[in-house]
Amino acid sequence: MDEFMLIFRHEDGHKVASPEQIQIWMKQTRDWTGGISAQNKLSGGNGLAFDDARVVRPNNVVTNGPFGEVKETIGGFIIVKAGSVDEAVEFAKGCPVLQGEGNSVEVRKVAKGDGTH
Question: Cα–Cα distance between 91 and 94 in angstroms, integer?
């Protein structure tokens, strides 16, 4: 069984949802990850905060946050255990982040520490 990272991409990191909407999304996300965990296929993951972020570029240029010139931001990730990328994609299809217009879930196989893919 391989591990796959499901990366949650939000089209516009500047939009701020109401506290009520955030609570709804958090519950939906907990329910979704709970279903994956119940299958013993959740390895871990977390959301990413939008404050205290920096982007470091060549020549030691540092800017605040992942904002400014980017159109989308990474809101978080989980790592799932799956027998194939297709199984990992099936998990991704249930992700609540897909309710947001322009949002997406990127599915990437996690490279093994021994140098194999």
Answer: 6
Residues 21-62 have pLDDT tens digits of 878 888 999 999 999 999 999 999 988 877 778 888 899 888
Tokens representing 103?
Answer: 């949002």
Predicted structure pTM score: 0.83
The Cα–Cα gap between 24 and 39 comes to: 23
Neighbours of 96 (CB within 10 A): 19
> Domains in the chain and their CATH numbers?
2-109 (3.30.70.1060)
**Burial of 108: CB neighbours in 10 Å, binned 0-12, 13-18, 19+:** middle
Confidence of residue 84 (pLDDT cuts 50, 70, 90): very high
Q: Which two tokens stand for residue 84?
A: 């194939």
Between CA 5 and CA 106 the distance in angstroms is 8
